[in-house]
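Hey, resending since the last one bounced:
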Amino acid sequence: MKEKDSASTKSSATRTPVKRVTKATKSAPTKSAGSNGRISAEKLVDNAFPMVSVIDEQVRTSIPTDLVHKVKSTTSKKTIVSDTYPYETMMDKRLYEQEMALLQIELVKMQTWVTQRGEKIVMLFEGRDAAGKGGTIKRFTENLNPRGARIVALAKPTDEERGQWYFQRYVQHMPSKGQLRFFDRSWYNRTGVEHVMGFCTPQEYLEFMRQAPEFERMLVRSGIHLFKFWFSVSREEQLRRFLLRAKDPIRQWKLSPMDVESLGRWEEYTKAKEAMLFYTDTADAPWNIVRSDDKKRARINSIKFLLKSIPYQGKAEELVNSMDSNIVGSAKDIYEDGEIRQAVFGR
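The structure tokens again:
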């Protein structure tokens, strides 16, 4: 499926579909462009997949050559690229679908408990670009009642919001009784992209680190069940996903110049993550790390983690308690290879 799809994409991109597009391009050959206005095959690829050349340039200038070779030489999508992941291959698709179907029933049971008891749940999904946050949220919510379960994915702040207390734009999305909120990125934008890319001042960044634990403590003490997930993807797998997205006309919207820029700032984002964990991994609101090189395992086990933590009625204990601790765990137990554990937790 993987190799065939790749070949198919390449083939379709290098043919001459322009003959079927408009009358203006009907007779345009696919040889190199010249003064006669002919369009080259390379130009057609650039038009269809504009992010390919951008990513290729970033890879050429910012990514270690041996890492690039390792990713591109791994032809099977079933193979785990990173040497630090606890498994060598992806989860079997049939087993995944069977488990996910059962977990969907458990999620509905859990929502019924939340609704009947007037509970409030907030879940934060954070991680590097292409870590698998959005796909996991989709699996959490696809069978829940949308009246009580809502996804919050905010755009960049407006001028008015930039003049407000930083957390104010998030407070208005907090759940009422009987509701769940799934934040696809959250106030932790300040510790990641805003800090690394210089969108906030050093003073604003430090003040966030002081205020975030207090803000979350208030949420928890107000009766909110707060879950913070960090999706931890290896550098190899992130690069593989970027390369695949760049040539996928359906998923190209997931890539932006800012995302591509992050490829060359791996170490900066690593340091930002370490600082975030140091200051905001608290007893009231701990971080839960999800190894997400295998999206299927990440989805299955993050759902199990939530279900295991909520005392809803009729729980399928054997299913829920089978969570893989190699995939989901505390920030002190699971961390990415190459990151200095003592620098984060040596308090």
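The radius of gyration is 22 Å.

Sorry for the duplicate.
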